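Researcher: I'd like a structural prediction for the single chain below. Treat it as a standalone chain; there are no partners to consider.
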Amino acid sequence: MSTQTLDCYILPSVNMPLLLPVETVSEVVAKPEIEMLNNAPASWMKGHVNWRNQRLPVLSYPGLHDAKLKDKSASAKDALLVVLNPIPNAARKTYSGLFCHGEVKRITVEPNLDFGEVPDNMDKRYVEAIVKLGDTEFVVPKLVALGVAFSYF
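Model: Treating it as a single chain, here is the predicted structure.
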């Protein structure tokens, strides 16, 4: 068992907040200008964004779990784009983006974590773990599965 702490970002999400190691995040962009997909083949496909002269796919993590979940409008004042670094071992070796709303926080996670069960309303293919920090549960997304989802854009 590791005794090292891990720096992470907490990302707001509809079902439960996400927990991502800081190494996976390249940048958090406030008020992104997303070219929304009007007729996307899947509800989790939000669109594309131009970031540092690159066209990135943008997806909604909650939408991967429940097609009925609706994110707020892309023009909402608290909209954020979390630019992910290229995902190791993924088919698509480029940057990509997660669409979210609210405040992104940076925390240090201690090594003595408690784990929870993946709720029935979540697609286990996209969940690496459920981590309990205090009274709050967080989703650690399965990055390789996200890489597969991004490859559909």
